[in-house]
Amino acid sequence: MNTQTAIQVAGVNKWYGAFQVLKGIDLTVRKGERIVICGPSGSGKSTLIRCMNRLEVHQEGSIIVNGIELTSQLKRIDRVRSDVGMVFQHFNLFPHLTVLENCTVAQRWVRKLPKKQATEIAMKYLERVHIPEKADKYPGQLSGGQQQRVAIARALCMNPCIMLFDEPTSALDPEMVKEVLDTMISLAADGMTMVCVTHEMNFAREVASEVVFMDGGQIIERNKPDILFSAPTHERTKRFLGKLLH
Amino acid sequence: MFQLDLFLQAIFSAPLFQGALLTIGLSLCVMAVSLVLGMGLGSMAGSPRRSVRWLVTLYVWLFRGAPALLVLLFVWNGLPQISEIFRAGWFTPFVAAFLALSLIQIAYLAEILRSAFAAVGRGQQEGAAALGMHRWQIFLVITMPQALRIAVPSLMNEFISLLKTTSLATVISLKELMTVSQFAIATSFRFLEWYGAALVYYLVIVSVLTLAQNRIEHVLSRGYR
Ligand SMILES: Nc1ncnc2c1ncn2[C@@H]1O[C@H](COP(=O)(O)OP(=O)(O)OP(=O)(O)O)[C@@H](O)[C@H]1O
Ligand SMILES: [Mg+2]
């Protein structure tokens, strides 16, 4: 493990009861890399990405994030999480807080920043996702695309060194997908380390350093996007991509 | 016949006013303690340990099933028989009523709060946890405000019904509204005026609570309109 490694997943196995969701997953994410994970429904993509900030616990193997191994002995998992941003399929914004408060709450409680400074940082990122004018609205008053951009801003406010995305556009109406993807593309252009579960192939083609294809809890194959999309080596990958493109 | 001047006298009499204060004070104490302990019991209902869940079920079953009057009398008369401690001077009717009504109220609130917390949804906790918030921070800032918004109407109903249940404490001679009225009637035989005055007090208190409920619901529903 060298200092250029952001996340190292090695030999990870995970079970839900008797059902094995992850089977011997090995995956290294270097700093500045953008990894896109795709695969059929139920293949374990969400489970894998949620293990990376320990929203799910793995039973075997090791996961090292920013040099810290995620184990049950780890007392302050919240410290690791505060440096790893996560964006969910269903946004998970706090409906009882305004957009601005959504972006400042963790800064104030976790980073212990004074209100003024937290607000400045929040406004900076709300501007970055192009919705500073919604700061005083509540999430319920925003469109899906706007909510997801707030969720991205909320994560960025913690100044994370890694961002995890779990199907950030799949709950959105088609006309709102682009605004969210554009935000993610601009993040990638800034050199953010990203792990994205998504089926947006154009996005993958444009930003991914590597695309990982999962099926049945295993990583079937991984490659640069143009190679994986044009010449997949495994039958399962071919079938999956075939369905996706037609 | 009903005499207006006696009625007004009764309303503005010191004992009735003090009785009302006691009724309100007792209700507030019981409610405050039951909210905290009910929340604890409610969260224990989701414990992975079966014995814990079983204990919670047993508790709720017992104190929702037992009539308030019985529990009051049991605590006031029964406990001193069980132990020396309850024969000391601190064990006043107020303490006994507080204990008895809290035991019951906790059982009711645990159920309300448990379902309210369950209704908030895992995504909220995960969203906060992913930001690095600590467990108790998530509870305090994210989950609890949302659960309370859901629970407020039921909690207010429980509070109003508790307020009226305190009148049962008249059987252990706690000097709350009903007891005070009964005393006055025993010497004056003016039933209409004193019961009427007590009724006015209850109605006023409940009306204030209803207004407070509207206000609280309004504040908590920000973001949901
Ligand atoms: N809490 C759980 N308990 C039991 N089984 C679960 C649980 N969560 C997920 N699973 C199962 O684990 C498998 C992998 O789930 P996961 O959510 O990781 O899939 P996914 O690749 O993200 O799928 P999708 O594209 O539908 O989101 C599925 O078969 C799912 O039914
Ligand atoms: Mg998923």
UniProtKB/TrEMBL annotation, chain A:
Keywords: ATP-binding, Nucleotide-binding, Transport
GO molecular function, one term: ATP binding
Pfam families reported for this sequence: ABC_tran
Matches recorded under PROSITE patterns: ABC_TRANSPORTER_1, ABC_TRANSPORTER_2
The keyword Transferase is annotated on this UniProt entry: no
Matches recorded under SUPFAM superfamilies: P-loop containing nucleoside triphosphate hydrolases
InterPro entries linked: AAA+_ATPase, ABC_ATPase_HisP-typ, ABC_transporter-like_ATP-bd, ABC_transporter-like_CS, MetN_ABC_transporter-like, P-loop_NTPase
Similarity comment: family membership: Belongs to the ABC transporter superfamily.
Residues of the ABC transporter domain: 7-241
Protein name as it appears in the record: Amino acid ABC transporter ATP-binding protein
PANTHER family: AMINO ACID IMPORT ATP-BINDING PROTEIN, PHOSPHONATES IMPORT ATP-BINDING PROTEIN PHNC
Keyword Nucleotide-binding: yes
From TrEMBL, chain B:
Family under the similarity heading: Belongs to the binding-protein-dependent transport system permease family. HisMQ subfamily.
Listed Pfam families: BPD_transp_1 (PF00528)
CDD domains, A to Z: TM_PBP2 (cd06261)
Domain ABC transmembrane type-1 residues, every copy: 20-212
Membrane topology recorded in Swiss-Prot or TrEMBL: Multi-pass membrane protein
Coiled-coil ranges per UniProt: none
Keywords of the record: Amino-acid transport, Cell membrane, Membrane, Transmembrane, Transmembrane helix, Transport
Signal peptide range: none
Protein name: Amino acid ABC transporter permease
InterPro entries per record: AA_ABC_transptr_permease_3TM, ArtM/GltK/GlnP/TcyL/YhdX-like, MetI-like, MetI-like_sf
Compartment(s) of residence: Cell inner membrane; Cell membrane
Recorded superkingdom: Bacteria
Transmembrane segments: 20-42, 54-76, 88-110, 194-212
Originating organism: Shinella lacus
